[in-house]
Amino acid sequence: MPSIYQFKSRFQSLLRPLCILMARMGITANQVTLFAMMTSILMGLWLSLQSDSRLPWLILPLFLLLRMALNAIDGMLAREFNQQSALGGILNEVGDVVSDIALYLPFCLISNQPAWVIAAVFLAFLTEFIGVLGPAMGALRRYDGPMGKSDRAFIYGGFALFFGFFPALASWTSALFAVTAGLMLWTCMNRAKGILTRPS
């Protein structure tokens, strides 16, 4: 199933010079992972506390791009600079879920039906949980779409940008999260199917 995740290798190529520089500076993959998670929490708090201000919503797309870059860099540091560890794997998966919750729950504050936002955030967690089940069941970690981590960042970040310029779009928040919730349910099924049909 198509997903922005398919462009990850090209994105990593762009980031490789920065990754090499960070490795030479002694920055570790786990430090990058923790930094991404903590800044996501702070960004989410800013959105929650100033949801009626345009600035944090306009900044969110840029922050999501930064988060995607950091997520790519921590993986590259781990794989290419011999920093892989069990702790790093835990931090990576937990960090993704915590960051999603922190960054997307604030959309409840601009939605007229926040239950859809909550449902989408729960399904975002479920997509990652099912993806992680792959290795636990002797298969690969699943990244199937159509609504993986990168896709969520692109769609929600794009909506935040438009909302920052046109606040009247708040009335469309529930519809957006309802549609993406459906796509994430589809993603869950695709990942589960991938584990069952391609176990290795």
Automatic annotation (TrEMBL):
The chain crosses the membrane at residues 21-49, 55-73, 115-133, 153-186. One of its GO terms (cellular component) is membrane. Keywords: Membrane, Transferase, Transmembrane, Transmembrane helix. Gene3D superfamilies: 1.20.120.1760. Pfam families: CDP-OH_P_transf. GO terms for biological process: phospholipid biosynthetic process. The lineage of its organism: Bacteria, Pseudomonadati, Pseudomonadota, Betaproteobacteria, Neisseriales. Coiled coil: none annotated. GO terms for molecular function: phosphotransferase activity, for other substituted phosphate groups. The keyword Transmembrane helix applies. InterPro entries: CDP-OH_P_trans, CDP-OH_PTrfase_TM_dom. This is CDP-alcohol phosphatidyltransferase family protein.
